Amino acid sequence: MASHLDLEEQEQLDQLKHFWAKFGNLITWVLLIVLTAYAGWNGWQYWQRDQSAKAGGIYDELDRAAQAADADRVTKVWADLQSRYPSTAFAEQGGMLAAKVQLDKGQADAARATLEWVAANAKEDEYRALARLRLAGVHLEAKRYDDALKLVTNDVPEAFAALAADRRGDILQAQAKTADAVAAYQQAWKALSKDVDYRRLVEAKLVALGAAPQEDAAASGAAK
After folding, report:
1. Contact at 8 Å (CB) between 176 and 157?
2. pLDDT above 70 covers what percent of the chain?
3. How many CB atoms lie within 10 A of CB 172?
4. Disulfide-capable partner of 59 in 48, 90, 117, 124 (CB 3.0 to 4.6 Å)?
5. Is 44 helix (H, G, I), strand (E, B) or coil?
6. Which region, left, alpha or beta, applies to residue 121 given φ > 0 means left and ψ of -120 to 50 means alpha?
7. Which of the pair, 10 or 97, is modelled with greater confidence?
8. What's the predicted TM-score (pTM) here?
9. How far, in whole angstroms, is CA 83 from its chain's centroid?
């Protein structure tokens, strides 16, 4: 009986040796790849958290400078945040905050450069869209109408379509293209919800141009 068991064990051992000789290297490489990938993922996650924490500290410094309305300090801290942690969410948030302070302090060129960076590099569609809208306003103030129109005509996310149309109206009105401005304002007015206060501002612009908006006949009939 013992001899029979020894033979079975020897056969199993031989089969295992044969299997390992045939597939051992492949299994080893697969395990190595899996473990390396796992270690890399953990390392990436740690690096991301570390980058975010450090960027958050700089953003806090930027926020303090903004609250103090220290535009020069804001620009310096923002440049540090932009260069060291450009891929973090704090960079796009910091850019929008920096641009606001720069505009409030009359630093239009600095604000334009900041907004251009956010519009080109922000990870979130919302921040890119907001940066483009505000940048269009900067170009409008400088009477760079063509540059301003491009920013609110092409590649506008649906959620920002109404605001972009309103800004187009402002630009077209500044160019004395009243009919086109009215059309843009009407588009914005129709796209905005009745509950949004901003809709009344757009309506006031239309009234001032002698084109008071009217609800669609179908909508009025349905209301009745």
Report:
1. no
2. 75
3. 21
4. 90
5. helix
6. alpha
7. 97
8. 0.73
9. 18
The count of other CB atoms within 10 Å of the CB of residue 181 is: 22
Contacts of 173 (CB under 8 A, 6+ apart): 181, 205, 209
Q: What is the number of other CB atoms lying within 10 angstroms of the CB of residue 210?
A: 8
Predicted confidence (pLDDT) per residue in 31-69, tens digit: 666 656 666 555 545 555 666 778 888 999 999 999 999
Q: Within 13 Å and on the Cβ side, how many CA atoms surround 49?
A: 6
Residue range 99-118: average pLDDT? 95
Residue with tokens 């007015």: 189
Q: Give CA angle at 185 (162, 153), nearest 5°.
A: 55
Mean pLDDT of all residues in 201-221: 78
Query: Of 94, 89, 133, 129, which is closest to residue 114 (Cα–Cα)?
Result: 94
